[in-house]
Amino acid sequence: MPTDLPKLSFPAVLPGAACTRLPLPAAPGARLLRSFRPRLVLWASLLVVLGSALGTAAPAAAQTLKAVRERGELVCGVSRGLLGFSSVDEKGNWSGFDVDLCRAIAAAIFEDAGKVKFVPLDAATRFAALKSGDIDVLSRNSTWTMSRETSFGLIFAAITYYDGQGFLVRKTLNVESALDLDGKSFCLQTGTTGELNVADYFRANNMTYSPVEFASLDEILKAYDSGRCDVFATDVSQLHAERLRLTKPEEHVILPDVISKEPLGPVVRQGDDQWFTIVKWTHFAMVNAEELGVSSTTIDRALKSEKPEVKRLVGTAGDFGQQAGLSNDWAARVIRLVGNYGEIFERNIGTKSPLGIPRGLNHLWTMGGIQYAPPIR
Ligand SMILES: N[C@@H](CCC(=O)N[C@@H](CS)C(=O)NCC(=O)O)C(=O)O
Question: Residue 365 pLDDT > 60, yes or no?
Fold first, then answer.
């Protein structure tokens, strides 16, 4: 069992999804068959009843789109508060890169990107909240790892942000590289990949460290700010965000070393391919839109475009939306109401935002990055 997962036990077979076999009557001959006819009818009706019961029970997990439509809003799990990714103001308005993905999924389904209920979740409980059905999708700076899919029956739908683990230190610590951190104390959040990365890195480099673990980001930040630990270790994107909340941000520096791969993206439950498709293609549509130069400000022009790729994206050609259970203008709504990938990146975390994160790996593949979306066709 990986240590970044809380110990939870889910039933091996979900209720209602078990395979039940009915003993079918033998059919040795026509006469015998005739004498069995009333019983056959009974068995057949039983099968129909059971079949439809299984039909509704087994895909209970395969009904997310229907449930979201009936409820009239998407329920999206986000972090408790991470500047630029998901934070809430005094009036209860959520904003951020992860929040915008939730809004984009809502826009793909409804005429309104505001039809989202945000559920703040901490690192340790986020996957259980998704598995139990409390949320429809998790969009919370979560790293795609194999065990998070195999242990929980979940599936990552896309990589919306290519990240890696880094280190934040006081300038007065006088270190230039992670290899200078031998013997230092580290502030870490329980239930994150960060714990494992630091352990791996120090073991591999024959160095020692003392972990100081906390359940919440606020506690970590307070502890680090007050000098309870020398190093704050987590995803580099978060270090950019959290540095701004320190008493004197200018006295701290993010070291240049990145010690892990942290591909962050939305997560859904396994077993609902339609929902998985919608979440995945919402991200791809925003990346394709940026690549094609379609943005929230050019969408009206794009709707009149004669370019085949643009037409398929905005739904003036093909039935791509309908095939996914949506309307054909689903991506046009996402782009109009929320924006393309570049717009979302820049307004929340980009170089002109308070976080000031350069696009780097998250540039489009055509611009030297690795954001690459399969085509809509
Ligand atoms: N990407 C990593 C780290 C994600 C994570 O939860 N990081 C903490 C900070 S170390 C965080 O964002 N906490 C926000 C919160 O608890 O709401 C993972 O998936 O495990």
Answer: yes
Question: Does 172 share its domain with 290?
Answer: no
- Same domain? 81 vs 224: no
Atom of ligand 1 nearest to the CA of 191: 20
DSSP 156-203: E---SEEE-EEEEEEGGG---SGGG-TT-EEEEETTSHHHHHHHHHHH
pLDDT of 156-195, one tens digit each?
999 999 999 999 999 999 999 999 999 999 999 988 999 9
Q: Which of 260, 278, 301 is the last residue of a domain?
A: 260
| Residue 2 resides in a domain | no
Find the 80 Cα to ligand 1 centroid distance in Å: 9
pTM of the shown model:
0.84
Q: Which atom of ligand 1 is nearest to the CA of 188?
A: 10
In a shared domain, residues 92 and 143: yes
Give SS3 for 56: helix
Rounded (10°) CA dihedral 94, 100, 106, 110: 90
Question: How much is the mean pLDDT over the chain?
Answer: 87
Give the span between the Cα atoms of 295 and 347, in whole angstroms. Answer: 13
Which position has the token pair 């972990």? Answer: 211
Domains contained in the chain, number: 2
Q: What atom of ligand 1 comes closest to residue 80's alpha carbon?
A: 17
Q: Kindly list the protein residues whose Cβ atom lies closer than 6 A to any atom of ligand 1.
A: 79-82, 122-123, 141-143, 189, 192-194, 216-217, 234-235, 238, 262, 264
